[in-house]
Amino acid sequence: MSWEHLSLFGMHTGGIRQMAKKTLNIGLVGYGFMGRTHSNAFLQAPRFFDLPYQPVLKAVCARNADRVKGFAENWGYQSIETDWRALVQRNDIDLIDIASPNDTHAEIAVAAAKAGKMVLCEKPLGRTAAEGKTMVDAVESAKSPNMVWYNYRRVPALVLLKDLLEEGRFGRIFHYRSQFLQDWTISQDLPQGGEGLWRLDSSVAGSGVTGDLLAHNIDMALWLNGSLTEVAAMTETFIKERKHSLTNKMEPVSIDDASSFIGKFENGSMAMFEATRYARGHKALFTLEINGEQASARWDLHDLHRLEFFDHRDESRLRGWKSIHITDSDHPYMKQWWVPGLQIGYEHTFIHQVADFLQAVGEKREVAPTFKDGLAVDYVTDAVLKSAKTKQWESIPLV
């Protein structure tokens, strides 16, 4: 469905509240963790946001017929498919949502765009920037509304941080640093590959923590602080061989277990990033800090409803870090939820993203992060992986 086709759903003068909602039929590919978060978001968004479209869970697709049937019954999908090609070609599907492993993203997205569908895709966009570029070309050629599920952009505390940066409260930016730490792959007995563990198989995932975890840190940095121009990186694979779930044989491990890099932003500030699955005691420690001439801020996913903020312009005897609890109605998104003081969580970021996307479609405009934004992240992750091999600084192309 191109932007031109959306013109027949034009808004009346009085705005959304005076327009009968149009149904938007969703075709989901994948029923794993992300399939659940996306399904919940499609169901909840119109219940809390006044939107021009009513999402309909029309069909879900996965290879295991019995399991996808159970998923469909649990979430209320009206039908199932076991071949994504059949799903893409259905005339009763308006939007294809790709929540399947990374090696399927490009082929499904390109086919969906050619079939005239809107396309949403889990991150990373492609296993490589080359794959991501084919996806961007496809949606732009078809003029298909598109978005990548970099959901942390919809954390209210981080939207507030974005607002403060755009208001100029930080002055010149000097430093941006970010981490994403986990510990779930430390055991040598953990196999690689197959359902549930495909992230440890580079042929499916593309890379390890660089494309899985650092992609989130990088997207956030590009959104908050602008383009990265060059990077110098190092990666490590701590366990060199693992049994493969599909072959039952010991095979070399070719993903990166840990990845870190320094870099430079276009605005002159310095970058420091780290991701690992070998930080014992950390399950999902995603943090960021940004330091400017006049102010600094930091955020932690474990306390996602708080923004730590320091403003040097405060009166000296009262100057210090403050913890802003993001629950008031004048904070981003929060007026749609509960009373002040009651916080929201991880799943709400996906609901916000669906709401923003449907609102943008109704207004026939793009909303970030688009596939081009996803490609910008892919260019950085490619450069990080290349630098780790060449042991040199690597430049990052512009999208």
Description:
The chain has 10 helices and 17 strands. With 399 residues, it is an alpha/beta fold. It folds into 2 domains: 145 residues, Rossmann fold (3-Layer(aba) Sandwich); 215 residues, Dihydrodipicolinate Reductase, domain 2 (2-Layer Sandwich), CATH 3.30.360. Helix 4 packs parallel to helix 5, helix 5 runs antiparallel to helix 10 and helix 8 packs across helix 10. The longest helix has 20 residues. The radius of gyration is 21 Å and the shape is globular. About 3% of the residues have low confidence.
- Name the beta content range: 15-25%
Number of strands: 17
* Total DSSP helices: 10
Ranges where pLDDT stays below 50 over 5 or more residues in a row are 7-18
Helix/strand/pairing class, anyone? alpha/beta
Q: Could you report the average pLDDT, rounded to the nearest whole number? A: 95
The CATH class label of the largest domain is Alpha Beta
For the largest sheet, list the strands in their spatial order. 16-15-14-13-7-12-11-8-17
Tell me, briefly, the overall form.
globular
CATH architectural grouping of the largest domain: 2-Layer Sandwich
Rg: 21 Å
- Number of domains as seen in the coordinates: 2
- Compute the separation of the termini in Å: 24 Å
Q: Write down the secondary-structure element order.
A: EHEHEHEHEHEHEHHEEEEEEEEEHHE
Question: Within the CATH hierarchy, at the fold level, what is the topology of the largest domain?
Answer: Dihydrodipicolinate Reductase, domain 2
Task: Determine the fraction of residues in helical runs and give it as a percent range.
Answer: 25-40%
Task: Name the CATH superfamily classification of the largest domain.
Answer: Dihydrodipicolinate Reductase, domain 2
Taking the sheet with the most strands, its summary is: 9 strands, mixed
